[in-house]
Amino acid sequence: MAYIPDKFERFEAWLRENGAHFEALELREYDCLNSSNTSASEVDDEEKKESPLTVSLEEVSEMRGVHARRSIPPHTTCVSIPRRCLITVEMGQATPIGRAILQADLDLDAPKHIFLMIYLLWDRKTHGSSSFFHPYYEILPPTLRNMPIFWSAFELQELEGSHLLSQIADRGQAIQDDYEAILEVAPSLGTLCTLDEFKWARMCVCSRNFGLQIDGHRTSALVPHADMLNHYRPRETKWTFDEVTQCFTITSLQSIQAGAQVYDSYGQKCNHRFLLNYGFAVEDNRELDGFCPNEVPLELYVDPADILFQDKLEFWTRGETNQISGAVTAGLIAQAVGGSMGRGVPSHAAESYTSGPVVKRVRLASYPTTISQDMADLQDEASYPQFSNRRHAKIQVRGEKEVLHHFRVWSETALDMLTFIEDELKEQQQGNVEVELLQNNRTSVTTTGQGVVNFDDVIRDMEQDDDVHHTILRYCADVLGSLRREEFKHLRYAQEHASGTRGGARSSFRSNNGLSGFF
Ligand SMILES: C[S@@+](CC[C@H](N)C(=O)[O-])C[C@H]1O[C@@H](n2cnc3c(N)ncnc32)[C@H](O)[C@@H]1O
After folding, report:
1. Pick from 517, 312, 516: which is nearest to 418 by CA?
2. How far is the CA of 438 from the centre of ligand 1 (A)?
3. DSSP readout, 91-160?
4. Domain of 514?
5. Is the pLDDT of residue 433 over 80?
6. Most buried in the list 305, 370, 391, 432, measured by CB within 10 Å?
7. Quick check: 147 and 169 in contact, CB under 8 A?
8. How far does CA 191 lie from the centroid of its chain?
9. Which residues form the SET domain (predicted)?
10. Residue ranges of the alpha helices (H) in 186-248?
11. Are both 205 and 341 inside the same structural domain?
12. What residues have CB less than 8 Å from 431, skipping those under 6 apart?
């Protein structure tokens, strides 16, 4: 166990003197200095000067956590922090700057966070070491160098191609806008903190505050000690503010072994939110049921010259959730991801999809590395050390590519099926096949021409193929299979009423354009 400096002993003593309980727990400091985030040679003098608080980057580990001193049974309250040790939004609102903000009714990016920040900055500056909260301020991470808004250009490079880069820039700008807006109505903010210190306070609050109900009123608070628990899912503890005892409590949901780290769940989130708000990305961000909450935004464009422009626009803008939306989404995504997955990703399908008349251009990231390169990089802990910014960036971009790959497989499967159905329909129109609709959604195909295979057989063959994603295959087969049946019904109806009613046969795919016309 690493040596725990005095400031932790002072912090714990202060909590105990004020009625807090956490006897079964101990704080630990992990051996991962900030220097592992950026090697000394990568930090130029300018950046050192700009460090939010003047602490040498090599001096401190900001990665601490909470461990069980002894085994903790389920349903044990292992942390109890009295109300007087909490910093709440209302305390920030009662400061001179807080009152000025309220009076001016400023429209701020993160209003609740701002009041917590204001209290922290104001109290620390005004009362210094005589502040009641001084022992707490002493243990707050001094630099927060893991937060992407503080990353060096070298570290940001690792995110090349990711949408997160613009979100990081937007976040930095939003904080600056808030700082300048408050300065206008409360110029004394300028004597409390610099913009960098304001940014530090914003990220400190953002990564440590709890949303609570106190006296029936929703608020946010900084809760000393409770904010030392790191994130892990599925959750092993739960927290609440107990109105009866007027204490913030953390309770175990299962037994926790002696020595084990005690975690809190920060929720089910996409890695970009973990990274932006907490400065880390989860290596395997997957729920117990296999669901992965990672997301990638896609920007889609429908060409106004497209013959189906109006239909498509309506489709995409009314948020339709009917059965085909998944398959159509997949088709568009196929075009979106085509050629955007980085070197080495097979792109055989991309060309034909992108050459279609519908979606001309999709603005998507272009990554400099492939997903397999990312995976190999993550094996190399010397270059990508645990808890380093470089590693977290790598985890983020690898996750984005996993999402894109998933949709690529989905869209390729859907488009393969659509092409097959379109060929089948053509053969039926030309009289080369006779498709009969049977019970249980099955079909019988009688061939008079050459080389026509039944859709059902194609699906069966694909099911045997280990390279096919089976959930995606089933989804596409069900959705497109039922559309195929509909299409054959309409075609048969049209053929039976060929004299005079031909033009009246409705086709859900607008067969003048072909099945894939929608794509
Ligand atoms: C509420 S604090 C937890 C205590 C913090 N480790 C400390 O030393 O002050 C949240 C911060 O802890 C770190 N953290 C929490 N969970 C983590 C995880 N699973 N992996 C990496 N860092 C984590 C991140 O820096 C995050 O912003």
Report:
1. 516
2. 59
3. HHHTSHHHHHHHHHT---SSHHHHHHHHHHHHHHHHHGGGSTTHHHHHHS-SS-TTSGGG--HHHHHTTT
4. 309-518
5. no
6. 391
7. no
8. 36
9. 51-267
10. 189-192, 195-208
11. no
12. 448
| Ligand 1 contact, 399 CB (< 6 A) | no
- The mean pLDDT of 346-361, rounded to a whole number, is 33
Residues 266 and 317 grouped into a single domain: no
Quote the ipTM score. Answer: 1.00
**What pLDDT does residue 422 have?**
84
Last residue of a domain, one of 238, 262, 278: 278
pLDDT band at residue 319, thresholds of 50, 70 and 90? low
Q: Are residues 266 and 318 in the same domain?
A: no
Q: pLDDT per residue over 326-346, tens digit each?
A: 445 545 554 545 444 333 233
The CA distance from 245 to 389, in Å, is 40
Residue 293 covered by a domain? no
Asked if 256 contacts 236 with a C-beta cutoff of 8 angstroms, the reply is yes
Q: How far is the CA of 263 from the centre of ligand 1 (A)?
A: 10
Distance 266 CA to ligand 1 centre (A): 10
Same domain, yes or no: 13 and 96: yes
Q: Are residues 267 and 319 in the same domain?
A: no
Distance CA 168, CA 148 (A): 7
| Angle at which helices 195-208 and 111-127 cross, to 10° | 120
Report how far ligand 1's centroid is from the alpha carbon of 204 (Å): 11
Cβ atoms of residues 469 and 290 within 8 Å: no
Alpha-carbon torsion angle 494, 498, 501, 502, nearest 10: 60
Please provide the size of the chain in residues: 519
Kindly report the number of other CB atoms within 10 A of residue 175's CB atom: 24
Neighbours of 182 (CB within 10 A): 25
| Domain end call among 278, 299, 320 | 278
How many of the other CB atoms lie within 10 Å of CB of 342? 20
Element (H, E) at 28: strand 25-29
Give the C-alpha separation, 124 to 243, whole Å.
28
Cα distances (angstroms) measured from residue 97 to each of 28, 88, 117, 127, 221: 36, 15, 11, 15, 18
Is the pLDDT score of 351 beyond 80?
Answer: no
Q: How far is Cα 302 from Cα 308, in angstroms, rounded to an integer?
A: 9
Give yes or no for a contact between 112 and 50, defined as CB atoms under 8 angstroms apart: no
First to last CA, the chain: 59
pLDDT in tens, 126-139: 999 999 999 999 99
Pairing of strands 263-264, 230-231: parallel
* Ramachandran area for residue 440 (φ above 0: left; ψ -120 to 50: alpha; else beta): left
Question: Which two tokens mark 29?
Answer: 């400091």
Specify the DSSP class assigned to residue 195: H
Query: What's the rounded Cα separation, in Å, for the pair 147 and 277?
Result: 7
